[in-house]
Write a structure and sequence with these properties.
The complex is a heterodimer of chains A (113) and B (113).
Chain A (H helix, E strand, L loop, with lengths): L3 E3 L4 E4 L4 E7 L6 E7 L6 E7 L2 E5 L2 E6 L4 E6 L8 E8 L9 E2 L3 E6 L1
Parallel strand pairs in A: 2-11
Antiparallel strand pairs in A: 1-3, 3-8, 4-5, 4-9, 6-7, 7-8, 9-10, 9-11
Chain B lengths: L4 E3 L2 E4 L5 E6 L6 E8 L3 E9 L2 E5 L6 E5 L5 E5 L8 E8 L8 E2 L3 E5 L1
Parallel strand pairs in B: 2-11
Antiparallel strand pairs in B: 1-3, 3-8, 4-5, 4-9, 5-6, 7-8, 9-10, 9-11
The chains are: A mainly beta (113), B mainly beta (113).
Chain lengths: 113, 113
């Protein structure tokens, strides 16, 4: 079993839809949770960063972490064609030698005008 | 504030050669991590450097090595290149070891012929 599992997609939605992206993980030691967005021929861009459980909102984006279920989600409201990209979840145990990020495989989102 | 800068953006090499990739972190960031991204395996952690010392290493053969300079700039070297080394190599920086989040550059696309 992979440490981090992410729905493989691809996902296609109409403009204005609410998008829900999810990841599950097996390592209960993970404490830091991130969502990155990657456009073609570019590096991953940090979208959301959460420590431990809870919700975090930034504009049209909401990140949720449920450590008891080992489940994280990213919600995108009023999706736009410019949101079309690959979305990667990432997590880390944090601290010293535990800083490496473990990523999901990513899901490609297409928002149709 | 300038982001993470990676050079070169593209490289074409042949099997058996060696290659050196360069990364300049965000100003003030002292920790640099390297990742390999391939369609099959996704993003995988290579190693992390802080204060010119390797702090953490992923599961890659010894052909993959790196170093960090006193100004926090980092280089990654791959010797005896194999076809399977074709990938996008990404550098990420953070303010310190174990600190999150990490911010990525746009990567070096390495193609092995």
């Amino acid at each position: 079993q992979k440490e981090v599992e992410q729905d493989p997609g691809p996902l296609s939605v109409p403009e204005g839809a609410i998008v829900s992206l999810n990841c599950t993980y097996s390592n209960s030691a993970f404490q830091y949770f991130m969502w990155y967005r990657q456009y073609s021929r570019k590096g991953p861009e940090l979208l959301m960063y959460t420590y431990s459980s809870g919700n975090k909102e930034d504009g049209r984006f909401t990140a949720q972490v449920d450590k008891s279920s080992k489940y994280i989600s990213l919600f995108i409201r009023d999706s736009q064609p410019s949101d079309s990209a690959t979305y990667l979840c990432a997590m880390s145990r944090g601290g010293g030698a535990n800083s490496k990020l473990t990523f999901g495989k990513g899901i490609t989102l297409s928002v149709r005008p | 504030k300038a982001g993470v800068t990676q050079t070169p953006r593209y490289l074409i090499k042949t099997r058996g050669q060696q290659v050196t990739l360069s990364c300049s972190p965000i100003s003030g960031h002292r920790s640099v991590s390297w990742y390999q991204q391939t369609p099959g395996q996704g993003l995988q952690f290579l190693f992390e450097y802080f204060s010119e010392t390797q702090r953490n290493k992923g599961n890659f053969p010894g052909r993959f090595s790196g170093r960090q300079f006193s100004n926090s700039r980092s280089e990654m070297n791959v010797s005896t290149l194999e076809l399977g080394d074709s990938a996008l190599y990404l550098c990420a920086s953070s303010s310190g070891p174990g600190n999150q989040p990490q911010h990525f550059g746009d990567g070096t696309r390495l193609s092995i012929l």
